[in-house]
Amino acid sequence: MNSADEMTPKERFLAISQGKEVDRLLVSPLILNFASRALGMKVRDFCTDGKNMGNANIACFKKYRHDVVYIFSTTSTLAEAMGTRMYFPPDDAPQVETPFIQSREDLKKLKPVNPEKDGRIPVYLEAVKRCVESIGNEVFIVPVIGAPFTTSAALRGTEVFIKELYTDPELIHTLMRAVTQSVKILIDAYVKAGGVPVTVEPVATGSMISERHFREFALPYLKEVYTHIHSHGLPGVLHICGKTKRVIRCMAESGADILSIDNIDLIEAKELVGERVCLMGNVSPADGMLKGNPEIITDMVRDCISKAADNSKGFIVATGCEVPIQTPHENMIAFLEAGRKFARLPIGLN
Amino acid sequence: MEKTVILGSLARAVVDMDVVRAGEMAREAIQCGIDPYEAIMDGLGKGMNRVNELFEEEEYFVPEILLCADAMYAGIEVLRPFLPKETEWNKRKAVIGVVKGDTHDIGKNLVKIMMDNAGFEIHDLGRNVPYSKFIDTAGELKAELVCLSTLMTTTMDGMQVVIEGLRKSGISSRVMVGGGPISPGFARDIGADGYAKNAVEAVRVAKSLLLDTGFSALIPKKPELVSVKRGREGAR
């Protein structure tokens, strides 16, 4: 246990969700592919092998004792399992190479995902199981799933997909229905493996689409996803990066309990949706974690806490998006130390 | 049909994302003997300028811009054969691409559309572009501007490699950068000449860069937290 902490991350998470007394707010930088560095691994070796992915996350947790262990490599992992071809750089997150749905005809080829077999879902499942077995008594293991809009975009090709919001809405809905079914299958598989799945929907960011399109094409399927997650007795978490001011009210209507946000002022977010949802964010990954220094990061963490710690539905100290892979160790330490210090309850900020 | 009506309809077709109508009205323009150059500039182009405004007003987002651009290009396709060869466009050359390691190109495509509409001769190198390709192309074309884009923190440092390579090769192109993780502070630190936070602003920054010599980034009246605190020789 870190000397500044009185509870394990899991005890803290549970206490907060049950409204019990707790030592401090959760401090949960979005450590994703960065976990590979705990074992000095290249990202490709990390994200294509369940043993590596699990062991690196275990080592990373032992090193930093962050409050949530995420299992993630790219938002397109489900799309990959459903047929999209990916390209794997030696030391960076995989990216979409060839989308699966090249024509309307290809919709017929869509099949519900088989988590035991398809794509790299078995890699994720093994990583989850290893982590649950090794550190699951101390911290929740949280596999990250691309939500329906984001997964559909990766199956169709994002640029084509967002144009079809206008030119072929029927195709979009057909695709979204099929994908939502697979998202639910994947949720069940991760829960069965001992994980607490969460969802990310970055393609539905306000940097990309309007609130009207979010409402029409993303929101109904998100609602279905969170209803399903709630049926497992788990909280719904929705992460969307980029600008979210225009869509954050819709995000709060999705049924998600926690909104992880990036490029929006936390006071503004609090005023818009703080009555309804717990907020999570939003230290800058690039200017803070990667290019900043411990002093800058400490200020940024403190700033987030001063803005949002009093949010009525709660606040989680986090980065706005993925912690960059090349983030210096001392910057990560600075983030966590500032979090442990300033997020201690009652909030004093001194 | 009257000229003003046709020009207005061309503009309208672009704003309405109507590919079919843009083509029809372009053919109508030719039939009525309207100068194709004028049909592009005062018809389609005017529509695209309105699209810029709608984007800035947050009425239009990415899908809208892409579809408006489709309509604009559908009209241009019809008009192009009627343009005199080597029309005196006096276009200024710019090279654009997404730096090596990154295949996210929607942002770059938006900038390309807007720059094209603003009268730049824009050479698109695509995505995942090797650093040397930017340098070689800028040198060969004697481009006045190089535009670098990335969405990823793992690839942003590649922009600095390109800028240093350009300088080392004695190429005097101005460099403008942008993309998700890029801030004005970062742009300044790596020696870029300009930073734009979105596609509409990219046009303004590009124009201002070709006018004067200083660093141009339109938003930061008060410089960002990071660049202030770090100063010039801050830790990295």
Structural account:
The complex is a heterodimer of chains A (350) and B (236). Chain A is of the alpha/beta class and 350 residues long. Chain A has one domain: Alpha-Beta Barrel (TIM Barrel), CATH 3.20.20. Chain A has 14 helices and 9 strands. In chain A, helix 11 (266-273) links the parallel strand 7 (258-263) and strand 8. In chain A, helix 3 (50-64) runs parallel beside helix 5 (121-135), helix 6 crosses helix 8 (169-192) and helix 8 (169-192) packs parallel to helix 9 (211-231). The longest helix of chain A has 24 residues, at 169-192. Chain A starts with 8 loop residues before the first helix and ends in an 8-residue tail after the last helix. Chain B has a 6-stranded parallel beta sheet, with helices on both faces. In chain B, helix 9 (199-211) links the parallel strand 5 and strand 6. Residues 219-236 of chain B have low confidence and may be disordered. Chain B folds into 2 domains: 3-82, Methionine synthase domain (Methyltransferase, Methionine Synthase (B12-binding Domains), Chain A, domain 1, Orthogonal Bundle), CATH 1.10.1240.10; 92-226, Rossmann fold (3-Layer(aba) Sandwich). Helices cover 53% and strands 11% of the residues of chain B. Chain B is an alpha/beta fold and 236 residues long. The chains are: A alpha/beta (350), B alpha/beta (236). At the A-B interface, strand 3, helix 7, helix 12 and helix 13 of A face helix 4, helix 8 and helix 10 of B.
